[in-house]
Amino acid sequence: MKAVIHPNTKRLFMAQVTNQMRGNTHFSGSDRVIASLLVLFLFVLPCFAQQDWIRTGTGLGVEKIRLAVPDFKSSNQDPKNADLLKAFNDTLWNDLDNAGIFDLVSKSFNPLEVPGQPTEVKFEVWSAPPPNASMLAFGNLGVSDNTIMVQGWLYDVKNVTSPQVLGKQYTDAATTDAARLIAHKFADEIIFRLGGGVQGIAESSIYFVSDRSGHKEIWAMDYDGSNQHAITHLASISLSPRISPDGSRLAFSSLTKTSWEIMMYSLELGRAVTFPRFGGTNLSPAWAPDGTRLAFSSSRTGTSEIYLVDASGGSLKRLTTAKGPDVSPTWNRKTGAQLAFVSGRTGLPQIYTMEADGTNVQRMTDQGYAVSPSWAPNGQFLTFSWMRKYGPGAPGSNDIYLMDIASKQWVQLTHDGGRNDYPSWSPDGRHIVFQSSRSGSEQIWTMLADGTKVQQLTFTGHNTQPNWSWK
Amino acid sequence: MKLQKMKWITLVFALGAILMLGACKKKVAPPPPPAPPPPPAPTASLSANPNSVQKGQPTTLSWQTTNATDVSIDGIGAVQPSGSQQVTPADSTTYHLTAKGAGGTQEATARVTVGPPPPAQTTGPSATEEELFSQSVKDLYFDYDKADIRADQQSALQGDAQFLGQHSSIRATVEGHCDERGSTEYNLALGTSRAEAVKSALTQAGIAADRVKTISYGKEKPFCNEHTEECWQQNRRAHFVYQK
């Protein structure tokens, strides 16, 4: 594995990618890929940290695959084709661009004649400059009888004798939603093949809190910000949505007449399902990766502590006993055996980890105001929101940080101002969704896990506490 | 003209009163005893409308006499032979009219019953209790990221405890609030700590724990929306709410 220091950092020294990243033999292939693509830890002496930007990177030291994605062509004369083609082409481009593993060939470099069928591919035109592509994704779309049919191929244009990597055909109802979904599926196929066997995220969802209806309700959207829609209509205050690993249930916290309670919403039934009320302030539910348990914070005994319950709310078990609030648990998504959480036991809130039985409590952050931990899918990293110098007279900025759990070394991911909070990992471990006030109001943004490719997803009302689905 | 009109009104009123008396047997004065033809004996009637009032409310006495030269009502004094007057009796009263004439003396009575204050007034003290609560019970303010009760808030806390001690029927909810800085989830936990700290202090001061409920609003329901320390201080508080 190679780590490359980005040239625009002045003084830095590189911490090694930790030993277990290199030497751990029971890494699966996909983890190795994540590890190699993900962050290579570059650490700055703390005194330089404020003035230097660090590029940690999904791409550092790894050549990105140069991929050409000409617009798909119409396969017939149906008048609906134009709208659906636009939705499809935009979505496919955006998905592949977002993936963070491709160097997309600008469409202006494409030859005038683009292929819609394998027979139309001119290999030498694509493999030579200006496109200079290694891979070519192309195909066609046509509507007939209100059915959309898409054919898509992925060609290795430098392998003229056996170029086909992928050949796919999709049919669905002729709607823009279906066209987008097909584009997501095809993009995920390409990302899976070329991205080292890591599943793409184009079909994943993000759950969040929005006040655009006048109340804070739970909303959902596609990972790229399209298809935003309300899930709850409780007209109270609902917070901290957490989707179950299988995507069937949504846990969140909602204000009742006398307390904050954990609510459970079935996305399959389209309604809330019974979940016990514990009294006091019950907050921040977190699903164990196997979906059988939930951790959450409850003040049922007077102080906020971390508790465990099973998925139906039974077998309540208290994990923490320290004075000072304990909130915002998150599971080690790889092992399901540890939890990270926030505790104010020493004053300002800090990030801690512990075993899932409450033992072996370790403090991770050493100063400031650190909240909202999210555990990376590979089990090695935590992201969280940190104001490293916080308090009266020190109006530090509130940014997203990434920490290597084993070494406690960290790197700052956001640098663009505003309050940045509630990071949540994408299922492929390559992206992070978070909330930021950098645009003037709280909105939801995504970025690659190295802090680049920042995109705003929401624009209406205030949108907070994003939670990325598990797949 | 005006005088005539008034007389007419009086007459109509009096007739109405007589009719009513006729309808209301209970109140009808005993019929006059048979009298020798000369001289004609006086007649008298007295009524109160309404004849049952709540304490502090007025009623109207109306009377009518004939063949009387000297008419008086006990407690009021000499009156016209016919007339009406508003009275506000403190307690249930029997008004007694005496009509004297050449033909003798005639008496009539009317009783006014004074009841207790209306039920609506019984909520009066309770509304006052709520008013008293909002006047007397003071919110407590906190330092940044802290849930312990500041030295300068101790007198307010003692006042609150004293008030709740004196009004043992009152129940209260303590709301924990935080300023806008920091995370939603942590602030809800911090607000819980503030509310619980106040509850625990009140309990130590002898207030029964079941009279004090707590809830945290974190930074969800701020009192003040400016981004200044003054405003943040307003929002870092335990707010007392009267529980109906």
- Per DSSP E runs of 2 or more residues, the count of β-strands of chain A stands at 32
Strand content of chain B: 25-35%
Tell me which oligomeric state these chains represent.
Answer: heterodimer
Annotation field: number of helices of chain B: 5
Question: What structural class is derived from the secondary structure elements of chain A?
Answer: mainly beta
Structural class of chain B: alpha+beta
* Count of structural domains of chain A: 2
Principal-axis shape of chain B: rod-shaped
**Mean residue pLDDT of chain B:** 82
Summarize the entry for a quick read.
The complex is a heterodimer of chains A (471) and B (244). Chain A is mainly beta. Chain A has helices at residues 19-23, 29-37, 46-49, 81-98, 123-127, 176-194; strands spanning 13-14, 42-43, 65-68, 73-74, 102-104, 135-144, 147-156, 164-173, 205-210, 217-222, 229-230, 238-243, 249-255, 260-266, 271-273, 282-287, 293-298, 305-310, 317-318, 326-331, 338-343, 350-355, 362-363, 369-375, 381-387, 399-404, 409-412, 420-425, 431-436, 443-448, 455-456, 463-468.
